[in-house]
Design a protein that fits this description.
Helix content of chain B: over 70%
Number of strands of chain B: 0
Number of strands of chain A: 12
Strand content of chain A: 5-15%
CATH architecture of chain B: Orthogonal Bundle
Radius of gyration of chain A: 24 Å
Largest sheet of chain A: 3 strands, mixed
Shape of chain B: globular
Largest sheet of chain B: none
Oligomer: heterodimer
Shape of chain A: globular
Number of helices of chain B: 13
Structural class of chain B: mainly alpha
CATH topology of chain B: MetI-like fold
Distance between the termini of chain B: 30 Å
Order of helices and strands of chain A: HEHEHEHHEEEHHHHHHEEEEHHEHEHH
Radius of gyration of chain B: 24 Å
Number of helices of chain A: 16
CATH topology of the largest domain in chain A: D-Maltodextrin-Binding Protein, domain 2
CATH class of chain B: Mainly Alpha
Largest interface: A-B, 50 and 47 residues
Amino acid sequence: MQKRTGTGACVLWVAVVAGLVLSAGCGKDADSGKVIRVTRNIGGREGFRLHFKAWQEAFERDNPGWKIELIDLGNQNGDEFYKARIATGDLPEVVMTWQLTPMLVKGNHLVPLDEAYYGKFGIPLPRKYKGRYYTTQGGIQVQGIAVNRKMWADVGITTPPQTWDEFVAGLAKLKAKGHRPLVLGGREWSAFQPLFYAIATNMYDRDPSPDKPSWTIRRNRAEVRFATDPTARLILEKMIHLLDNFVEKGAASDGYNEEQRIFYGGKGATWMMGCWIAGDVEANQVDFEIDYWPIPSMTGRKPVLITCSVPQSGWAMTTSATGEKRAKARAFLECFYDPEVYQLFLNGEGQFAAASKVPVKGPRSAWEPAQRLFDNIQRTMDEYGTTPGFHIALDDMPPPILFSNTMKAVMQEMLAGTRDVDRLLKMLDDDWDSALKGM
Amino acid sequence: MGNASTFGRRGWPASLILCGPAVVLYGTFVVLPAVLGFAYSLTDWTGWTADPNFVGLDNFRELAGDERFAAAIRFTLSETWMIVAFFTFGSLVLAVLLDRLRSVKGIVRGLFFYPYVLSILVAALLFKYLCNYNHGAINLLLRSVGLGEWAQDWMMDPRWVGYFIFAMVGWSAAGFFTTLYLANLQTIPTELYEAASLDGAGPLSVFTRIQLPMLVPTVTTNLVLATIFGINLFGQIVVTTEGGPGYRTATVGYYIYWLGVKNNRQGYASAVSFTVFIALVAVAIVQVALLRRRQVQL
């Protein structure tokens, strides 16, 4: 009986294994090798989706038989996904890099681009990273303050406040008039925006010189620390005041989507968020006027927008693309500057053209409030200018965890009632020190 | 004995075939990663490169002074304590009460077990929406019955967030632990109840003199499983609080993830992971030894 059982089990296992072996690859079609996989953080953003679809169609039109496979990373950046794929040796052929370019380059996962690529489209050369270029240079992403013009006008303010104290005084007037002065959610990454704005515009040089070490470089050399920098202390004190007085109870459990709903729903006067929000104005049928203001200084400087276009951040080819696939990956990056595709990119992110040889001008929208916001951002940039904020180049960038996690955690601590500034400064320093070991 | 020896001598191909796949899978996906994890704990591997540098015991030295690791342990233990108490004793009471039901027994048991069928992510998302301060169902309900002042930020207020996580885990898995007790209750011979009834024993006496002693093996099982449940808290944290507010709800599991995945410190995360593994093995050995001794005494 046992012998029969053993034989039966043996036959069963052999059958299962044979079945698995025979079925392996059954799902693949004959052309599965002619696919370029591309990552993008579309999530629920209609503007991003439209852009990617056009990009995909342009490539597939020009490269018959080849397909683009979208890997949508939702609202996340790619770091978890990329590390998992690196571990399995299966990084997509084209990836969005965000601030991850240094890590991807150090691991030899990116293929450099030559200057001819940039010259072809008239794109200003990005700062080199370790002497090489890697990414598309899509446009100029800027960060400032979106305001509901009608609400601010209701308290007599129609032009950007020139100092942080003026800005806060305006928020106080809004509050007194019964408006929700500031939209801020505490649960997700977006909680860090006000702190990021303050650090980037008050602790870093507005017009940095590559010859002069930035705060980041000096911090990495342990010449400065948050705990001993009076500006850092001032920033945290002003953040505590901001959260104490202008953020409603319960905001800590809201995330980016709730922030968007409140602001676009006309229920909040001010939202400290990047220009990409402009790409959602039409999709959300926002019908009121939004102004885009520069970030007021806490240290007596002129207000300014933060530009994120200095470091290399965009799409890059990976070393997974070999042979013909590398040529096609490169072709895909060139399709990015197809005029129709590029226009949709600018529209989707509310960005401004940086490619002079592509016949496209600024973001365009048939939805009037969206176009007015685009024009408003352009005017603000022209009048107040931009600063690179944290960095001169990618080599000069703070550890990425500082953006996505630490500043959010510090803001959450303040929302939770922590008033011990020393403890908050220590959180920033501890995370910086720890993160340096992972850089 | 004859069967065993037959199996031992001639049945080895069958045992190899029956156990082999499981052993291979366990070795590949549990034992090997654990061994590799220890190897990585001696490096500064970031996860982005293929060539980690050997750093000896540096990671373990850093761990000794890591305040955030200590905070993660404290929070994990505080959650584990609540979870163990509830799953071990709360589920026991629940099981005894359910066992006494005379009608709709199956439906009620099914309702209790149902949340356990849901994935951790679904349960966590559900709680995230239930507990949002402005739009969550709990606060909307409180406001609708005029108790708006009781509305709280259940998920991000440091005073409540520990209970929020406990409630989420408790709701999800109470059915599982209760079912284990119920299964054990079905094995208690009816003669014991009949004898107790003839002796005039009340429900409390039946519970303390018959049911509880007979349930001790399951208490042991549930205690160990609940401890593992508490120590392993991770998915719920990722989906809901992401360790916040600040780092206050970072469990040990979440801290390891934060270090390794978010902070690019796979080597150090491996050191934390290995240290926790050793500590848990020690706890499990002590726990099981103590409980077995207690079972024998009973």
